[in-house]
């Protein structure tokens, strides 16, 4: 018998029945909120903090009973799960690092009944990281919280999912979010694979009159270019209501270009393989509202690990709150940012996270370090610059390689404009080179190329 939309599916595996019972009160709490027409978006700070303490206690009890790695971490801190659920004491627990996960891929397995395993895409270097999920993780715990205002009225719409499905967590993760949590019809478009080339994706999107598209920023540009080649008018032939951008960083200037290309508003999603969905941008575009039903976020000093107060920039440390198979506890992400607690004009009460780049991605020029997205923002503010560029750094010098927005432009004048504008931004002389086509692989340019 087919299930009706909205039916609660209960997934139980024999070995995880006790673990499910442990998380069951939190699932019921979210269901009760939904039944009253509320979500975690509407709650006061004290209510969210009370939830965090309850779920941290459950998570730490689960992890310490099922995993020697986490059991040892609690012993080293001299804490019980109940004590460690207090934020002051929780900060005593040692950090989980990428090296921990790479050194022993199964170090944090708390339930061996894993339904599937994702791996990192390799963009941060080093050995791959693997994160597995139980069926309970995938179909009950991950979709228990929901964020109705931040998901932009996508409930029940047709969604095009143009994220990679192979090995990466992004395609399947958002497939479930929209299909199970938002009760949408999902088109698994993929990202340029053997059966999901851009022309086929566009054909499928047109056939089913999609209203929502979740996609990487660079692939949004690639699909728009392919539509132009095929004579498809994105403004006339598509009636998109919303674009969700994820999988790569995007400056406000690039997001605005994508909004113009597709003729609809776009917001950015911040997530990772290790933690899942971390933050959702609202239409105010003033930071990512933390998905505090799923994650517990801390900001620490990158070198000392000391916990920083809201408003101070440091390294983002995250804990996955609702996860049975391989929960991450106090995971150092390598991302920089700060948390803002002031209310947002959109009405959502969840705190906002402002990203400030990655520790390992800062471009080192003679005049100092710069975030690639900061440079992208200033470069793409120049109307003559096309959507594709590369920043080439050698011995502290910056060379910008860029396409022109129109063949009618004067390349010499645009070169001079780029050099003058970015030179004033970085505080040193820089060079520019106009090219017919920036090299890219599978619809994605390697934005930064460093030679040290």
UniProtKB/TrEMBL annotation:
SUPFAM superfamilies referenced in this protein's UniProt entry, alphabetically: Acetyl-CoA synthetase-like
Taxonomic superkingdom: Bacteria
PANTHER family per the UniProt record, alphabetical: BLR5969 PROTEIN
Official protein name in the record: AMP-binding protein
Organism field: Paenibacillus lutrae
Phylogenetic classification of the source organism: Bacteria, Bacillati, Bacillota, Bacilli, Bacillales
């Amino acid at each position: 018998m087919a299930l009706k939309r909205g039916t609660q599916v209960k997934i139980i595996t024999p070995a995880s029945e006790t673990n499910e019972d442990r998380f069951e009160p939190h699932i019921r709490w979210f269901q009760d909120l939904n039944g009253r027409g509320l979500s975690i978006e509407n709650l006061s700070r004290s209510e969210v903090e009370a939830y965090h303490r309850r779920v941290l206690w459950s998570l730490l009890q689960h992890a310490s009973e099922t995993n020697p790695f986490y059991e040892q971490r609690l012993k080293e801190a001299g804490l019980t799960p109940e004590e460690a659920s207090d934020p002051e004491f929780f900060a005593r627990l040692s950090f989980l690092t990428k090296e921990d996960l790479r050194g022993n891929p199964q170090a944090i397995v708390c339930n061996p009944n894993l339904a599937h395993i994702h791996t990192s895409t390799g963009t941060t270097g080093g050995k791959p990281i693997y994160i597995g999920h139980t069926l309970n993780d995938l179909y009950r715990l991950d979709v228990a919280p929901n964020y109705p205002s931040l998901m932009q009225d996508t409930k029940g719409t047709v969604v095009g999912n143009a994220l990679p499905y192979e090995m990466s967590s992004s395609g399947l993760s958002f497939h479930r979010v929209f299909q199970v949590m938002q009760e949408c019809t999902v088109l698994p478009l993929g990202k340029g694979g053997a059966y999901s080339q851009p022309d086929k994706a566009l054909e499928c999107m047109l056939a089913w009159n999609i209203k929502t598209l979740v996609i990487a920023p660079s692939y949004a540009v690639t699909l728009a270019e392919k539509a132009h080649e095929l004579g498809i008018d994105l403004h006339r032939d598509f009636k998109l209501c919303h674009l969700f951008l994820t999988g790569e960083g995007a400056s406000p200037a690039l997001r605005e270009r994508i909004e113009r290309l597709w003729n609809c508003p776009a917001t950015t999603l911040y997530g990772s393989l290790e933690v899942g969905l971390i933050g959702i941008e609202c239409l105010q575009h003033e930071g990512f509202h933390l998905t505090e039903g799923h994650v517990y976020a801390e900001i620490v000093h990158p070198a000392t690990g000391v916990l920083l107060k809201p408003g101070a920039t440091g390294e983002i440390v995250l804990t996955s709150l609702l996860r049975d198979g391989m929960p991450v506890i106090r995971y150092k992400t390598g991302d920089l940012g700060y948390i803002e607690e002031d209310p947002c004009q959109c009405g959502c009460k969840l705190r906002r996270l402002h990203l400030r780049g990655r520790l390992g991605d800062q471009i080192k020029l003679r005049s100092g370090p710069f975030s690639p997205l900061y440079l992208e923002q200033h470069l793409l503010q120049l109307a003559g610059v096309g959507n594709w560029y590369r920043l080439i750094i050698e011995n502290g010098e910056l060379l910008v390689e860029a396409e022109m927005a129109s063949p009618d432009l004067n390349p010499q004048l645009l070169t001079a404009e780029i050099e003058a504008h970015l030179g004033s931004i970085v505080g040193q002389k820089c060079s520019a080179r106009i090219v017919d086509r920036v090299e890219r692989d599978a619809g994605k340019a390697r934005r930064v190329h460093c030679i040290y």
